[in-house]
Design brief:
9 strands; alpha+beta; 162 residues; S-adenosyl-L-methionine-dependent methyltransferases; 2 helices; 3-stranded antiparallel sheet
């Protein structure tokens, strides 16, 4: 009976690891953003850009972004904004009105004040585990040099009046 209990406990731990592969930050495939400008909003006349330095933990093998546009109360289906492999890191991500218009196949004039663009990131690690915003609950904290925020997995850019 004792042997059976030990076996059940071991199986339980193994199952928990499969359910939650991010027991520690060191085991995760985390993409990090360092936003370079103070204002992540962009103007309809393309005068302000969103700029971020994007880094990764060693386990990240790939990273991709999808974006939706909400305009006039209607939200589009997600479209691919870009994808990168581990060899592409680090890189600088710059988003402007022209890039957003091109991504959605619309003219720059179609982008209006109060439009909102929501970006969702996905990373895949060297084990094939997929990470999205659903894996992150607030801030994950590891050792002091591994402070983490979830900007690379869920961020908005709003178009403002100038």
């Amino acid at each position: 009976m004792l042997l059976l209990g030990g076996s059940l406990f071991f199986t339980s731990c193994e199952d928990e690891e499969k359910i939650n592969p991010m027991q520690t930050i060191e085991n995760a495939a985390v993409v990090t953003f360092r936003i370079m400008n103070d204002d992540i909003n962009i103007g309809p006349n393309d005068t302000r850009d969103f700029v971020a330095d994007v880094g990764r933990q060693e386990r990240v093998q790939s990273y991709s972004l999808e974006v939706t546009r909400t305009s006039g109360g209607t939200t589009s289906d997600p479209v691919s904004f870009g994808s990168w492999t581990g060899d592409d890191f680090p890189f600088t991500l710059t988003i402007d009105v022209a890039t957003l218009a091109s991504t959605f196949g619309i003219s720059q004039e179609d982008i209006q004040a109060n439009d909102r663009f929501n970006f969702l990131g996905t990373s895949v690690d060297d084990r094939g585990t997929v990470y999205t915003i659903d894996n992150f609950n607030g801030n994950i904290t590891g050792t002091p040099e591994l402070q983490f925020n979830s900007d690379g997995y869920d961020f908005d850019i709003r178009v403002v009046n100038e």
